[in-house]
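User: Hand in any protein.

Assistant:
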Amino acid sequence: MATAARKYDLYSDAFRADTYATFARMREEDPVFRQPGIDGETPIWWVTRYEDAEAVLLDDERFVRDPRLALAPERLAEWEATLPDAIKFVDSHMLNRDGDDHRRLRRLVSKAFTPRMIELLRPRIQEIADALLDPVFPAGEMELVSDFAFPLPITVIAELLGVPPADRDRFRVWSDAIVRPALAADELERFGTRMVEFAAYLHELFELRRAEPGEDLVSALVAVEDGGDTLSEEELSSMVAILIVAGHETTVSLIGNATLALLTHPEQRALLERDPSLLPRAVEELIRFDGPVERTLNRWAAVDVDLRGCRIRRGESVIVVLGAADRDPERFEEPDTLDLCAERDSRHLGFGRGCHFCLGAPLARLEAEIALATLLRRLPALRLAVAEEDVRWRPVPLFRSLVALPVAWDA
């Protein structure tokens, strides 16, 4: 299949500027639809309605993340041959495993991400948020993504893992390399270089923690023995890599998108300023309205599956479009309206559903709540410093993520 065979543009700047109109058309005309992915060749099934999306996410036996459970041996060998060698050291994480493999890997880190454990981080997250605003406040302006939305969660996850926050800019480069598609030869070469650097950094960190263990999560993972089980070096690298990437990418995007939504819906922003107790509910509505994770990683059909009249064959790829499902009018009343007080069911799919539900959801929610409360409390008359139509989105298919968000306030 060639690029010209695509009915829906899901990758261009034009799509990014009008994302939800495209999703509405897909839901209405082609709720389960097959067209090529970003390479213009690989056919993918796209699922856009809430009911179908939830069904796929909950069905971890027929729709799997591990291609070994779905692809015939020769097809699996072909698929693995397309993967750059550099990706393999970050590929053995829980998002890419199912069943017992997934449960084993998830169990090793889940205790650090319970709502009770995360709530203990509240004072430190608040301290970081205030420290980020202190130096920029007198200027009356900042670029919110780089100055606030990025350093807040990357500092939190770095401290949780026990890696130096001073290395956060390096994490940003490595994380961007992992989530940004690499198709051309020069892109693949650059990706390979970045991953070799990342692998070397992690191996050095692991050796340091073996010699000098601390109270951090990396030290715990290096030393872990769970029923006589330990993490292989590849599993350890993959686990820490995914925690660094997922531990900040989602929240950077959430803080940026939520701030933009509030600044472009002044009546809703005023509600929060008058009543900060609305924030927990508001965060859920902001995730539903313009969530940070636009679509899932691809799954494979482990058997032939019929979905809304379409036959999805074993081994075919499926992507759930979370951003489309969370604006499905069959599921949410007036879904294109941001309403922080609406008594709507908040069961959005922004953090997924089922066994792969986002482990870091409690942390992302808390960071977003503190970030928004701090911005609204400390920055009087906070406003966009550019026209709304000039705001640009990153060309990253997985995330709905701002390139930058210039803001100003009355200092």
Q: What stands out?
A: The chain has 17 helices and ten strands. Residues 3-408 form a domain with the Cytochrome p450 fold (CATH 1.10.630.10). Strands lie at 32-36, 43-47, 63-64, 141-143, 299-301, 305-307, 310-312, 317-320, 383-384, 406-408.
